[in-house]
Amino acid sequence: MKRCFFVLLALLFAAGLAQAGERSWFIDPGLYHSSIHNSMGCSDCHSDMGEHPDPARVNKAHDPKVLAQKCAECHDEVLAEIAEGSHAGEQITPAEYQDCAACHDPHHQQVVAESLGERPDAAKARDCSLCHESKDKLPALLEEDQECLACHSTPQKGEELADERFSNMCQACHAKEKAAKGVSVMEPALFGGHPHADFGCMTCHPKAASYPHSGQEVTDCLECHTRHEPGLARDAHVGVPCQACHLKGAVPGFDKEKAVIIWEIAPGPDKGAGAHQMVSREGTESCRRCHQSGNRVGASAALLPAKSIMCMPCHAATLGVGDATTIVALIIFCVGLLGAVSFWLGGSLPGTSAQGAGAKLAGGIKAVLGGLFSARLGSILKAFFLDGLCQRRLWKVSPARGLIHCLIFLPFVVRFIWGLFALFGTTQLPEAEFSWVLIHNDHPITAFVFDLTGVMVLTGVAAALIRRFKQKDAPGPEKLPAPDWWAMGLLLGIVVLGFVLEGVRLAMTPALTQGAPYAFVAYLLSKLFGQGQWLNDFYGWLWYGHVILTGAFVAYLPFSRMFHIILAPVILAMGAADKGHHDHQEK
Fold first, then answer.
1. 63-76: per-residue pLDDT in tens?
2. Which fold has domain 377-586?
3. Cβ atoms < 10 Å from Cβ of 229
4. pTM for the whole thing?
């Protein structure tokens, strides 16, 4: 099914070239049959073809004067009118009417319907009944014209070998035994066994039939494929071309003017053949093209894993749990969480004699479900967002601590929501461009948001430290727990090292991307580091240092006083779900 889709795509594009006015080697037999030149043979206009295809002529520039001279053999009166400033009954500027092909396709020019005052479009041109009774097939051409159209006709409905015919035409110049000097070689035998072996040339080279022939761009792989999920290829690979990893013999490089990674193949007689051998490798063989000491693309010398589920509160990450730091940290976190849950489920519910974890859990679930499907839903949402996320109650007790809490807590909320959208987009909507903007560190919006939220956390931690030392002996507000300085210290280390990491990443990139200045803190830090291969070698150590600090924070969190920041929104919402508890609070 997929193969049929790709073949159809190539055929439609080839037909489109013939109809869209582009200069193409393909002719639509149906449109040619209904054109003004349908009674003429190919040699009437192409008498000088000789032996072809001739690689020396495929890049010959279009010369309007040569075409005009050819048209003048039959339409000399038209060119005479143009020279006098008139064409099609209108006054014109002769200098603007020197290229006949700019308006008239010599192979598909339709008869002017003077009585209707219109020129039939392509759909009408295919309607046999406009001129005669309907036919099942077109009339036979002259033998010499059939020989031409054996290669030059666009695919017809039901033609099974059209894709092969296109490729055979390409092989007339690009086959190893026929290729002239300077023409890249494409050897079909080397194509076998590769993912695209059964596709025709025009699937990936849709303008291969147009001319001039050189300088055409290859179709973006994303026209048919989607990007790898971040768990396989991290966010840093969003702008990396597929060939840099998947093309046999490709050597990654860096275009400093465009600030993008590129690829190239070593020159040689078989360069064209190598350029078609896309492979899917197992393991890290492809990764080592860039991730090695001395690389030219600004990549870390170390192979680093994708961001795991432990990174989700701060980054657009994955649900992976593959590295040792994440596994150990999550085990300790779960142990602490289970201890907290067992404590919460101990004792009995207020106003009841029921005891035990089961009774308390059942009562809590009943209260939550009862609140969700009742008029108390508004109160639950209000408690969750205003009291839990925005710290409304804390602002009333201590505005200073309320501000500090918001500066530390809300950036994580923003980043976590950002990461959820990124995870959903890259896994469920990989064809949507916005999905990849959310994980692209060099995109201006992403760079700015993450640096801004990082600065907010640093400001909050710094304010907490300053407040602590300024009011060391002063009594704090009642009913507020003392800050957890171990957690604060870990958080400070994580954010500071995160900025250093981003600064090193920008510094080791051969040329700064468009979005680099928007990461305003990391951008300034990158200026301090300068450039040098040591950055690529040292980056991996910094990265693991950042991960280890994060793992330590996650493991410590259930045992710290900072745990209440995460639990508060949930507990307040559950409290609001309990009508009696909610009414008591309102009083």
1. 888 888 888 888 88
2. Fumarate Reductase Cytochrome B subunit (1.20.950)
3. 14
4. 0.73
